[in-house]
């Protein structure tokens, strides 16, 4: 058995730390919930901000998607539970109205299902 | 940002100027362009300073009305898309050309500085989009394929740039200072190429709904005070009288008042043979008048029309999520972080255990892993197939409520048909008139020739029966009267009319005592007696639809059990069942028991489709695994049905099941392709990896597009 050189040990350690960091960074994030009364603007840029909104059951809520990111994937937003699929023109505002009758958590995503947001109905 | 508003109340060029100026005065607005024919205003403004309300109040302040236009006008959207595509094409051509130059070294050779210049252009001009998508995503602590591509190409480019500019530095670390610009440049070029083709193909997936929208007429010819004027379709209101000439599109739904024609309804029902329509018949907006001219009364306009409902239904179904996609979702939410981790492991393993030159091999393999693992093909696998499948159905008159219904339909192994109106036409008609005795009335004896005499007497039987039935409200009465009317038989006056429910009707016609009664068999035979003597028989029956037998046979051949459910007695039910080849019959089931019967069959472990008219049997439809409503052609939004068939042809039930099977097959193939391609690529180098990745997205979308071509 040859002696493992120093640089290899460093690479292995840094790599392991990188794995832990990646896992923590992407999969252990806290969700910040924004309570919405009647209307909310969601900025579409590298994801959705705010990402998680809470709305009230049985009330009509307007969600305005404003896309500022040219990523093709974000050019459509899909709210499958509300059967809504809308094209989002770049720098345009597209309004979606929903009136949920059931409480629960309903996700929305871009058309490739890469970016996600959530609507919590209370 | 840019926003389009609908402006109402503009009539002339000066209105346009007025509106433009009013909006321009709103602080923060940088550009306004108002269109009179489109009744829109395109406004460019600073989002921080201006909101919709400010624009609304500016417009209403000068006496017009503004409203938000849903999306920024489809034309603008189309233009923007085309512009994006052209831009993308330019980037693809430049990156691949530069990539080829570097790769073959024909022009730039070993001149690393020249290579660096070309690579820098590609990295930060063509690849700018990847960075732009990555940075905001990282702020959200999410990652996507752009993140992977950014990390991968940046690593290759960064190392090569350092190797070019400071070769000594690299050499000091014991690594050969050899730049790999071809990797970063070709990877960007190939991935953009994949996106270009995917975007082009994707436009084809939503063609069906565009076609439906294109069916809507733009104007209508309204008849008012004896004059005919063309008005925009939006101005047509219920009760308007509309004239349609040969070859014209029928603008909205309505009922024919005068005239008649043959109408091509294939775009709505999928039936290729034109339908003859006359006074009192319903017409559907968007269908095409072939030969005649007629006027009709508008009964449904705007979003209430059949076509508008179909468009809404199809749009909603295309946005819904199939249960199979939940699995795909779960996978893709962990995909990117897992790939980054895999990439790190790859680097460490190659660096620590790999052969010389360890660092370079580690770097290249890491980049390959990052590039290949893009999950976009997976994300596209289900939705593109659903969009194409639902659209294909709509073209054939098969309206699917949601992706879930489309998915369930392929698992069906039992189909329950409601009898009346589904297997049969649902309307009793006179099938036979038979002369029996000598007891004909006076008028019949006037004819000399025997043949004519028989004919006349037959007419007499029908005439007497129809005259009697005129006072009755029985459903069979309608069939007899209709038959008599269609043969232009004059009815006589009836005196001393009396109806005995369940038995028949009697009365006096020309002083003759006439009685009409029935004996229930498989069809109803009515007996007519004149002065106590049997004069003739009239058979009335609900006839089986033309293609019922063929449809039942085909279903059975597909291994699907066919069951008939009906409120009729066993004898009648069995007779019809024999006629169409159905072996299992549930007879004498009251309407409110149908639901329970469906549940009983489900309890046998069957996956049940219930086919009915969607009105009387709504609960049964809702409790089946999938409810299929055979539409009357005028009501498409049947809540209890997962699938609505516009046509009355039973063969479309088979088409619906076939469509579901083919769509599901496409989805499975797509998912397999999305998963398999990366495995191929990992074994190769980064350039092949990016090629494989681009190919996977293109193949998935193309495979979904193939669904358009399948025969159902």
From TrEMBL, chain A:
Keywords noted in UniProt: Membrane, Transmembrane, Transmembrane helix
The keyword Repeat appears for this protein: no
- Give the matching InterPro entries: Cupredoxin, EfeO_Cupredoxin
- Which intervals hold domain EfeO-type cupredoxin-like? 19-121
Q: Which residues cross the membrane?
A: 9-28
Which protein, by its recorded name, is this? Answer: EfeO-type cupredoxin-like domain-containing protein
Q: Which organism is it from?
A: Candidatus Daviesbacteria bacterium RIFCSPHIGHO2_12_FULL_43_11
UniProtKB/TrEMBL annotation, chain B:
Residue stretches making up the HMA domain: 1-67
Q: Which domain of life is it from?
A: Bacteria
Transmembrane domains' residue ranges: 88-106, 112-131, 143-166, 178-197, 334-353, 359-391, 671-695
Q: Which biological process terms from the Gene Ontology are attached to this UniProt entry?
A: copper ion homeostasis
Record Gene3D superfamilies: 3.30.70.100, Calcium-transporting ATPase, cytoplasmic domain N, Calcium-transporting ATPase, cytoplasmic transduction domain A, HAD superfamily/HAD-like
For this UniProt record, the keywords arranged alphabetically read as follows: ATP-binding, Cell membrane, Copper, Copper transport, Ion transport, Membrane, Metal-binding, Nucleotide-binding, Translocase, Transmembrane, Transmembrane helix, Transport
From the UniProt record, list the reaction(s) this protein catalyses.
Cu(+)(in) + ATP + H2O = Cu(+)(out) + ADP + phosphate + H(+)
Kindly give the InterPro entries that the UniProt entry links to this protein.
ATPase_P-typ_cyto_dom_N, ATPase_P-typ_P_site, ATPase_P-typ_TM_dom_sf, ATPase_P-typ_transduc_dom_A_sf, ATPase_P-type_domA, HAD-like_sf, HAD_sf, Heavy-metal-associated_CS
Membrane topology type, per the record?
Multi-pass membrane protein
Q: Which CDD domains match?
A: HMA (cd00371), P-type_ATPase_Cu-like (cd02094)
EC number(s) recorded for this UniProt protein: 7.2.2.8
Give one GO molecular function term.
copper ion binding
Q: Cellular location of this protein?
A: Cell membrane
Instruction: Assign the protein's first listed, main location to one coarse class.
Output: membrane
Q: Which GO terms describe its cellular component?
A: plasma membrane
Membership in a protein family: Belongs to the cation transport ATPase (P-type) (TC 3.A.3) family. Type IB subfamily.
Name the NCBIfam families for this protein: ATPase-IB_hvy, ATPase_P-type
Q: Which PANTHER family match?
A: ATP7, ISOFORM B, P-TYPE CU(+) TRANSPORTER
Name it. P-type Cu(+) transporter
Q: Which organism is it from?
A: Candidatus Daviesbacteria bacterium GW2011_GWA1_42_6
